[in-house]
């Protein structure tokens, strides 16, 4: 048997072993083929194939969701007479949030973690293992919320769906943590790329937000996933659904003052948007009512806002396209402002109200029970701010104001400040507008907005909330590996204990017959009184003089610190470093002794996890 045939035979035996071990008898035919390919292909080849499959699947999910929502919006805004549209604006947004909340409570058992924070949570807390339910739950929820008028975006739900697809694919083929995280990010990348038809922006999104601090040597799966998602979007979606802007002016360096000022304005607006979001979230969480009633309240507020200002209905991309196409009057035609004499000041007042209220509409949509993200709202708000700034400049008397360009770079500025993602914003608008010559103004506005946001808060409020809860780390991605470790797993439940009233002879027997170096001294109620080590005991056991007054309470000492079961592994390691010890007792809130925990056990598990991540 030559070497090649021998390798094929060994591969066949491995596949046969896995076939029996993992119950592949029930697997679908395509899963059997992929399992076989996993055994035959090299790691890089299989990851490349995986990136294509995950990218296509996530891309199709994005196309499906965008198509459903577009058709609902088209029916409401184009097929219904104005008087009935007003009625729909009152009913549908309310119905969307209430229906979404009802579905979450009844079908998905109240599990409604959503947004980009949900992906980061799964990477840090759950070893990049995402529930299979999220492969479809986000589509269902966001289609109802945004389709019926929720003032939020579809991109975050699409990203979560893609992440779930990538994670579950990796779980099916038993890939390790690093590969699982890579495919999770590839799925999210493909989702974003399909939503905007912008593959480079999708890749930037993965590196800038999801994989901060991680260096992947084989990032090709991310690229091919983004390309697949973007291609499917381009092939299957109609032109009016695509996030495309064909009208813009050529870049003129003499317009730099406009961009500098707009960067400051969008940065301040992004801060306003985030502050309103935090206030609304705090307000809704503080209400003493059921989730369904909160949804009804949020839905009622949203419906009122949409009735008064129809651009707040849904994602709002059509409004931004109207800005760039010069079709401004169509924005007001479907609102109550149509009954006023439409002049420049009417448009300015209307757009100021829209900008200020967009933050409230989005926040009530998301936090009262709807499902959506801040991608579309930040882009809509930024485009509106940019157009408003251009109109005001024209009214003041400035000539040759680059209106379309200010709309486009305003979108990038607001997105950069809201999401803390300047690179994603820059490439997203550049790709969507075919405006690669706009890189300079895009970079100026996005960076200024981002720096202003960072000046107010070093990390985005969404991530800060998770960090404050101890869910993720925000400085080093590798440290997030510690979150996949659980304190409960490191407690030695078989630690040796001795009663504080026991005799020295009993302690001597415990030392002789036991195999531990640490002993917990407890009372009759199992509460910790102190600890003993062999070093503490040795001077008394090997002393020729017998001290008849010697008791355990005289030998024992207080521990350097206590560990509680709800302490995080990283916090425990910090306690070990501060105390200079290698073993500490674990007690509950009533000081009941639970066992000892050692620093070496945590470090060993962390190293094993890090090794698996690096392989």
Structure summary:
This protein is mainly alpha-helical and 615 residues long. Helix content is 64%, strand content 4%. It has helices at 3-21, 29-40, 43-78, 82-106, 116-125, 134-147, 155-172, 177-196, 199-210, 220-236, 256-285, 291-308, 317-325, 329-333, 344-367, 375-396, 403-419, 422-432, 439-456, 461-468, 504-513, 534-541, 552-555, 569-579, 599-614; strands spanning 496-499, 518-522, 528-533, 583-587, 593-598.
Proportion in helices: 55-70%
Q: Pick out the low-confidence regions.
A: 20-27, 473-477
Backbone CA Rg = 30 Å
| Mean pLDDT across all amino acids | 81
Tally of separate helices? 25
What would CATH call the class of the largest domain?
A: Mainly Alpha
InterPro entries: CBS_dom (IPR000644), CBS_dom_sf (IPR046342), Cl-channel_core (IPR014743), ClC (IPR001807), ClC-type_chloride_channel (IPR050368)
GO molecular function, one term: chloride channel activity
Transmembrane segments: 46-66, 86-108, 182-207, 219-237, 258-275, 295-313, 345-369, 375-393, 405-430, 436-456
Keywords: CBS domain, Chloride, Chloride channel, Ion channel, Ion transport, Membrane, Transmembrane, Transmembrane helix, Transport
Question: How would you characterize the overall build of this protein?
Answer:
The structure is a single chain. This protein is mainly alpha-helical and 615 residues long. It has 3 domains: 217 residues, Clc chloride channel (Orthogonal Bundle); 226 residues, Orthogonal Bundle (Clc chloride channel), CATH 1.10.3080; 130 residues, CBS-domain, CATH 3.10.580.10. Helices cover 64% and strands 4% of the residues. The strands form 2 sheets. Strands 1-2-3 form a 3-stranded mixed sheet. A hairpin with a 5-residue loop joins β4 and β5. The two termini are 31 Å apart. It is a multi-pass membrane protein.
């Amino acid at each position: 048997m030559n070497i090649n045939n021998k390798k094929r035979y060994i591969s066949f035996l491995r596949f046969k072993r896995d076939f029996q071990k993992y119950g592949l008898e029930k697997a679908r035919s395509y899963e059997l083929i992929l399992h076989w390919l996993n055994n035959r292909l090299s790691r890089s080849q299989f990851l490349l194939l995986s990136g294509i499959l995950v990218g296509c699947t996530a891309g199709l999910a994005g196309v499906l969701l965008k198509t459903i929502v577009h058709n609902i919006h088209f029916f409401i805004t184009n097929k219904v007479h104005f008087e009935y549209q007003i009625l729909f604006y009152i009913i549908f947004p309310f119905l969307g949030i209430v229906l979404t909340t009802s579905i979450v409570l009844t079908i998905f058992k109240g599990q409604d973690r959503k947004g980009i924070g949900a992906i980061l949570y799964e990477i840090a807390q759950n070893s990049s293992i995402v529930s299979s339910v999220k492969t479809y739950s986000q589509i269902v929820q966001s289609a109802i919320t945004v389709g019926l008028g929720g003032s939020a975006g579809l991109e975050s739900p699409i990203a979560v769906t893609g992440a779930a697809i990538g994670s579950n694919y990796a779980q099916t083929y038993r890939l390790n943590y690093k590969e699982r995280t890579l495919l999770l990010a590839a799925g999210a990348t493909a989702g974003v790329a399909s939503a905007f038809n912008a593959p480079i922006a999708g890749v930037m999104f993965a590196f800038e937000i999801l994989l901060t601090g991680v260096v992947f040597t084989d990032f090709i799966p991310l690229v091919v996933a983004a390309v697949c998602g973007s291609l499917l979007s381009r092939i299957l979606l109609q032109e009016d659904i695509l996030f495309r802007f064909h009208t813009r002016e050529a870049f003129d360096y003499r317009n730099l003052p406009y961009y500098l000022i707009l960067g400051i304005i969008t940065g301040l607006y992004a801060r306003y948007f985030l502050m309103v979001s935090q206030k609304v979230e705090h307000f809704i969480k503080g209400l003493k009512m059921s989730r369904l009633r909160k949804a009804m309240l949020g839905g009622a507020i949203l419906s009122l806002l949409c009735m008064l200002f129809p651009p707040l209905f849904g994602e709002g991309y059509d409004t931004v396209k109207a800005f760039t196409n010069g079709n401004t009057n169509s924005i007001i035609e479907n609102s109550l402002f149509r009954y006023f004499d439409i002049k420049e000041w009417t448009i300015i007042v209307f757009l100021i109200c829209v900008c200020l209220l967009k933050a409230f509409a989005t926040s009530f949509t998301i936090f009262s029970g709807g499902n959506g993200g801040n991608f579309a709202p930040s882009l809509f708000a930024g485009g509106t701010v940019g157009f408003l700034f251009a109109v005001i400049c024209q009214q003041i008397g400035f000539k040759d104001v680059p209106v379309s360009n200010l709309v486009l770079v305003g979108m990038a500025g607001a997105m950069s400040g809201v999401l803390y993602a300047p690179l994603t914003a820059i490439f997203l608008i550049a790709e969507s507008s075919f405006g690669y010559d706009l890189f300079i103004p895009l970079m100026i506005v996005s960076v200024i907005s981002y720096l202003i946001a960072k000046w107010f808060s070093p990390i985005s409020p969404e991530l800060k909330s998770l960090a404050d809860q101890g869910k993720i780390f925000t400085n080093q991605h590798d440290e997030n590996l510690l979150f996949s470790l659980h304190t409960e797993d490191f407690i030695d439940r078989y630690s040796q204990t001795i009663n504080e009233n026991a005799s020295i002879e009993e302690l001597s027997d415990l030392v002789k017959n036991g195999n531990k170096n640490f002993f917990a001294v407890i009372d009759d109620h199992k509460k910790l009184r102190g600890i003993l080590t062999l070093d503490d005991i040795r001077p008394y056991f090997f002393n020729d003089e017998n001290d008849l007054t010697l008791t355990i309470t005289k030998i024992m000492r207080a521990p350097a610190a206590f560990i509680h079961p709800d302490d995080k592994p990283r916090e425990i390691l910090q306690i070990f470093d501060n105390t200079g010890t290698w073993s500490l007792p674990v007690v509950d809130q009533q000081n009941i002794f639970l066992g000892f925990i050692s620093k070496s056990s945590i470090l060993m598990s962390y190293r094993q996890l890090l090794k698996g991540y690096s392989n």
